[in-house]
Write a structure and sequence with these properties.
This protein is α/β, with parallel strands linked by helices. It has helices spanning 47-57, 78-86, 103-113, 127-134, 139-151, 172-181, 208-218, 283-287, 292-304, 324-327; strands at 14-18, 64-68, 93-98, 117-121, 157-163, 184-190, 194-195, 221-223, 234-238, 244-248, 261-264, 269-271, 279-281, 320-323. The protein binds S-adenosylmethionine (SAM) and iron/sulfur cluster.
Length: 329
Amino acid sequence: MDQPKDRFGRGVNYIRVSVTKRCNLRCAYCMPMDGSLVRPRGDMLAIDQIIRLISLFAPFGVRKVRLTGGEPLLRKGIFGLIRGLKRISGIGEVTMTTNGVLLEKNIPRLRDAGLDRINISLDSLKAGRVRAISGHDIHEPVMRAIRRVAEERIWPVKINVVAIRGFNDDEILDFTQLAFDLPVEVRFIEMMPTAHNRLFAGRRGIAAGEIERIVRERHDLRPATSPLTGGPAEVYDIAGGAGRIGFVAPLSRHFCGSCNRLRLTAEGALRSCLFNDGEVDLRRGFLEGAPDQWFVDRFKESLQVKPKGHGLSAASSAPCEKPMAAIGG
Ligand code: SAM
Ligand code: SF4
């Protein structure tokens, strides 16, 4: 089947699915401290509804699904979801972004279900700082999971580090060293202005160029010979190292021109841009018993409303009404 294109010639081959808004952490740039985001819980798509949607979209070019949240490992039925998605013809990759807290004990079930790769978020290598930013004492289990997945080469692993001035800007070389020592891709991410971001107003984001300069003073970086996947990160091999370094710069070097993704929110809306609150509601179709074609039409509609770019800058205040945990990051 022909791959439909949006108004700017971009097709969609990648869907990020937020499987829950709930989270066991309260990262300062993502969630309100009081947990008000997840109460009342709101209606979420059921596992079989997510599988049905992806199987309807796959013939139109969707190849890769990333499960995110909230914390995807809190979602009941997550292993069945992975298994169901892996069975869909055309879906080449099912991946997950997790905070890693519950990862280690779930490795066998995730592996059996067929997960292809994993991103683990960790903003500091110091236990006290991790507690300060996330509200919980989770440094040790997350580090253990990272080491195990990397050392046993269970999955290719990326480590997401949100760069925050006055918090982890003195750990850039420590994170680089981690990527030197272990076969992981450490990705420094520019902090984005989303709802409930308690840090953005303080202008604590750091541009990727600044981080890159610090890394290059110590290390020789070469464009990665075999980046883990195509995507928004600019990825480099570290001369002599086991892993890689990446920079995800949605603000200073935005990549909207090559954006190939849609997002499915936990409540069942298709969102064509992280920073555009215009959403196409799919849950209504489930409530009304809509036929497959109705969902396919909504998929095409969401491509047609996909904006050219997010129009953000490092100085803008939160233009996104929803928190990252609801959209899936
Ligand atoms: N709970 C999982 C986790 O933390 O990996 C998955 C969901 S989380 C919303 C997905 C990613 O978005 C994480 O790597 C997180 O650091 C990132 N993120 C959340 N809020 C952000 C913000 N305001 N700017 C940049 N990245 C953000
Ligand atoms: Fe939870 Fe992930 Fe948001 Fe942190 S970034 S509060 S772990 S959803």
